[in-house]
Amino acid sequence: MAEELKQTASGGPGEGQLKTGVDFLSRALKMFFGILAAFIIVALGWFLIFGGSFIVDTTTESVIVLQFGKFKQECKEGWHWFLPSPVNRIVRIPINKQEITSTAFMPMVPEFLYYQGVKADGSEPTETDEKLVPGVDGYVLLGNNSILHCEWVMTYRVTDPQKFYLTCLSTDEAENASAAASGDTSKGQTASLGTARVMLKNLLDDVVIAASATQNLETTYYDRAKYEHTVKQALVDRIAAMDFGVTLENLTLKIAAPPIITIPSFQNLLLSETDAERVVEEARTYSVEQENLAKSESAKILADAGAYKLRVVKEVAADASYFDEIYAQYSKNKKATLVSLFSDTLAEAIAPVQDKFIVDVKGGGQSVLWLKVNQEPLQQRAASAPAGAGGGPAKEEE
């Protein structure tokens, strides 16, 4: 174009001015194209160097790199660089704890259950509120055909991002609208957990239905810890069998209650069972006390019997030893032994008698001699003795 302008300008008047303008325009175009080329080179260099780089936050995410739509690599920490889109695509997968609350088994107006059969303001529910409408109100059917309302809170964590992405993940462009508007699409898309949450919630509801069918009202309403453990164990087994990269952190039974209209009856039953437990505990305490008392008395009786047995055995052994000794003396001198035994026996027999007499009876009308031989009391003897006299025995009364 510049050459044509030069040829046209060479044939007419004002050739010098036109040539100067053409030269200026040519230099301006060259400068513009040079600046444009430099900008393109700089932009291409930035795009290649920084456009495919990213940093992984190890506390909240793990990054999946897809090459032409296929899984290539998982990045768990640090700074990484890959060729940007459309060659590689980055998907950020949250790995922090996630919560899912299932209210599928709660009534449409759960306020009465949360406040034990009354509203938040303390008012009683109306007849319409107490009705359970199948298909509208949720409930779970127990093994004994009882109805129970329950609410569950599940906490889980993604532990295998690759399996999680390949089995149950979807991306949500709406979540990255702000990044796309700013042109920062190279940083990757944050994966939406919507599909996974729906799947896990349905899995939880299915496990609750199956586990509740094996329980009764006593174990679910009055022993919530056991019911919660049963459902949790069943859910852990199901998640492990499906193997989609998710680990169950915790499962909490937030509320478990019968239908609204039956809550007062259940409260009365609970009070009666509390009284029954108190009476049973008192009876158990009394039984333990009586048992301990009986054991104590039994031990005392056995101890007394043992002591009595030992004493009797010793007495019998002493009597046997004494008999053997007497028998030995008797074998040597019968008369002397008999006289000694008679004297000992007579002394023992008259020892308790206070007044003792010797009576000598003579025939032929003679007088009878009576002799009192018992001792005077020691105090009386000491009083009747003269001062300075010896303490010898007193003379017997005649």
Describe the overall structure:
The protein is 51% helix and 19% strand. It has twelve helices and 13 strands. A hairpin with an 8-residue loop joins β12 (357-360) and β13 (369-372). Mean pLDDT is 76; it is low at 172-186 and 387-398.
Topology readout:
Blueprint: H1 2-10, H2 15-49, E1 53-56, E2 61-67, E3 70-75, E4 78-81, E5 88-94, E6 98-105, H3 111-114, H4 127-130, E7 140-141, E8 147-158, H5 161-168, E9 170-171, H6 177-181, E10 189-192, H7 194-212, H8 217-221, H9 224-242, E11 246-257, H10 263-332, H11 334-350, E12 357-360, E13 369-372, H12 378-384
Parallel strand pairs: 5-10
Antiparallel strand pairs: 1-4, 2-3, 2-5, 6-8, 7-8, 8-11, 9-10, 12-13
Helix pairs in contact: 1-2, 7-9, 10-11
Sheet with most strands: strand arrangement: 3-2-5-10-9
Number of helical runs?
Answer: 12
Order of helices and strands: HHEEEEEEHHEEHEHEHHHEHHEEH
Structural class: alpha+beta
CATH fourth-tier homologous superfamily of the domain at 57-258: Band 7 domain
**Mean pLDDT across all amino acids:** 76
Give the terminus-to-terminus CA distance.
187 Å
Question: Summarize this, please?
Answer:
Helix content is 51%, strand content 19%.
Distinctive features:
398 residues, alpha+beta, Tetrahydropterin Synthase, Chain A, five-stranded mixed beta sheet, four-stranded antiparallel beta sheet, 12 helices, disordered C terminus
